[in-house]
Write a structure and sequence with these properties.
This protein has 225 residues and is an alpha+beta fold. It contains seven helices and eight strands, in the order H-E-E-E-E-H-E-H-H-E-H-E-E-H-H. The chain has an eight-stranded mixed sheet, sandwiched between helices. The chain is globular and about 55 Å long.
């Protein structure tokens, strides 16, 4: 993809996040790695509903602005340092999405990891979803909190905060956020109906094997309770 195409893809994802209610007001942030090693990120204090390519900022690996937004008054998100931690830890990651999908964030606030192996699609495309310890949004502590989970996970809940997904491209990172929220909704209903029941172990392993055919960090069967 060209730089312009990446910018347009980021804006499209931002619009979808807002339309689905995964972000409210100025919540959330999105970034993507460019072929030259720099990054494109969303601005701070800006609703994802109105994102335009001219509002996006080019950053380098030192969290410095390489190319400001074409429109005046737009500065990089303070949480770009969290995105940088993902890129540093994972050379295979080329996009990061952070949002507050309501049901999944409810699990994060309740300190309940989404590690039930109940739904084949979630096993295949997400694996188990741990919760990174809380720190103040925008702080270096948030970046540090997710680091231990990045080696084996592409989807992470952020305690009392929201969710983070990574991917080989912006589409994959976004799809993981969609799948996470869908799985959270299904899991919540199952718990309300009396309990979420895991698949038999042999079926879980079959799904894990299928998951290996996709570019995903998958630790296999693992619980965080």
């Amino acid at each position: 993809m060209t730089e312009q195409e990446i910018k347009e893809a980021i804006c499209e994802v931002g619009h979808k996040l807002w339309q689905l209610g995964f972000v409210a007001a100025n919540d959330g942030n999105i970034s993507a790695r460019l072929p030259d090693g720099n990054f494109i990120t969303t601005p701070t204090g800006t609703s994802k509903a109105i994102l335009r390519p001219e509002m996006l900022i080019k950053m380098n690996a030192n969290n410095e602005v390489v190319e400001p937004a074409q429109l005046p008054g737009y500065n990089p998100t303070s949480e770009f340092k969290v995105h940088l931690r993902c890129y540093e830890a994972r050379p295979d990651v080329n996009a990061v999405v952070h949002a507050h999908p309501p049901t999944a964030t409810g699990f994060a606030i309740a300190h309940i990891p989404l590690d039930d192996y109940t739904m084949p699609e979630a096993i295949i495309f997400l694996g188990s979803v741990p919760i990174a310890p809380y720190d103040t949004p925008g702080s270096q502590g948030v970046a540090d909190s997710i680091l231990p989970f990045l080696e084996n996970h592409d989807t992470i809940l952020m305690e009392n905060h929201g969710a983070l997904t990574v991917g080989v491209d912006i589409t994959q990172a976004y799809y993981r956020m969609e799948t996470l929220e869908h799985f959270a909704k299904v899991s919540l209903v199952a718990r309300q109906l009396g309990g979420a029941n895991d698949l038999p172990m042999d079926k879980i392993q079959e799904c894990c094997e299928i998951g290996k055919s996709f570019p995903i960090r998958h630790p296999g069967y693992k619980k965080y309770h």
